């Protein structure tokens, strides 16, 4: 049992030097200690189940918060984080749908079939219906559950909607990218529709209201009409600060001295979101929730450097498996925390919120075996060691075209052309094509992209398909150790092999013309009936419609947009 007391850092170090032996094909480094989610950490004891407010922002970069040295004003986030616990070893996913699915299910995306890209508006796809969601578990524990904001977990049939997945109420968008005022979303030229929904109905009457402010107002209304005597869970998934870059003028004026227009608008959106969080916190206090509440703040992925975001000094951006894509802003603020006002370096992943919050709610996890998340509340509240020692960032079998990857480069056990990444203790391994690998300073210069874009670019190693970093010693991923430590590379490749054996087929069906908003009164919404379920669902192979019509304009445009996918993806996900 002495082995289990070692930290992730020392354990992997000793393994690498050969002082310890381990079966790397076991489920996880702590599997022998506790296999049941409820046993991973003892549940807390509160007088009453706490109110839980989970705030998720969209595309907010690691550098884009005041307490990380940003030039953007975030006084509310700075204060809440300073009075709570800052999570400085906190990881998310590099794009939208995967992060949201892992939050809602507590499972890696290889275990839900969502390991490739995102769920697109015209795809017959959604979060698998056999998954028991976080709000469903909280409902079982007696909670009132509400969602405000961006869903992006599929909507092709009504069973996929938030109100069918555990939320009592819902106000927000179903797709991933809408106008902040008009709530229009275009999935290609001529494929546009309205996307703001109240429950399962289209909320036409809310058009014209800036989404960040609208969502904060809705949270205030929920708190005002609910009794603090009954526990409540509110999932606030702000659209901010995803593109399009739109903000009320009064916020843009504050940053008028910023030379870069994209950065100026982006900064305004962040500050507006910060004030929305201030209003939510104020409402918690006004209506009597605050003293028994837990506020969790998280980003969904790294910042989009094409659109004003910054992950400096981390490497990479949104959509990549470099630290800039997967290391997030995170903190917990609560009067119930035992050791407040500190920074935690405990390893935490977005899947951990599922068992952590259900345990806080005194819920039952016995009927959801095989979770990939851990209860990290003792690590957050009391400063104890995190039960997590490794993170599977992802394995994407459909993204397997790295030019220089091969099975030979993977010691005959792993094809390094496959995009994958894993963190074990201090070590991080990447294979395939991890994405844009630049270090990009904040975009404060006037010309875009121009002079700032190439300030920190690595030009060597372009013929590689394997990278290894000691993230503890080198958090900015500047020193690739794959050639010096082939023993560690092989060990981590074996972990990828293990996880890959547990993966389910990819759910990434072809887009279907039936989803066009013109067939739904001009709004995005469910289009498939229960009888169509088998036709619309897929596991990686393109689906064929039974309607043998001639190719429509939408279909003809598909190949064109796929050719532009590398560039367009930055603003569509």
UniProtKB/TrEMBL annotation:
Note the SUPFAM superfamilies from the entry. Answer: Alkaline phosphatase-like
Q: Does the keyword Calcium apply?
A: yes
Q: Which Pfam families match?
A: Sulfatase
For this protein, the record's PROSITE patterns field holds:
SULFATASE_1, SULFATASE_2
Provide this UniProt record's keywords sorted from A to Z: Calcium, Glycoprotein, Hydrolase, Metal-binding
State the Gene3D superfamilies in the record: 3.30.1120.10, Alkaline Phosphatase, subunit A
Which residue range or ranges hold the Sulfatase N-terminal domain?
A: 50-361
In its keyword annotation, does this UniProt entry include Heme?
Answer: no
Q: Which InterPro entries match?
A: Alkaline_phosphatase_core_sf, ARSB, Sulfatase_CS, Sulfatase_N
- Output the superkingdom of the source species: Eukaryota
**Positions of transmembrane segments:** none
Q: Which GO terms describe its molecular function?
A: metal ion binding; sulfuric ester hydrolase activity
Required cofactor names: Ca(2+)
**Membership in a protein family:** Belongs to the sulfatase family.
Protein name per Swiss-Prot or TrEMBL: ARSI Arylsulfatase
Q: Which gene underlies this protein?
A: Arsi
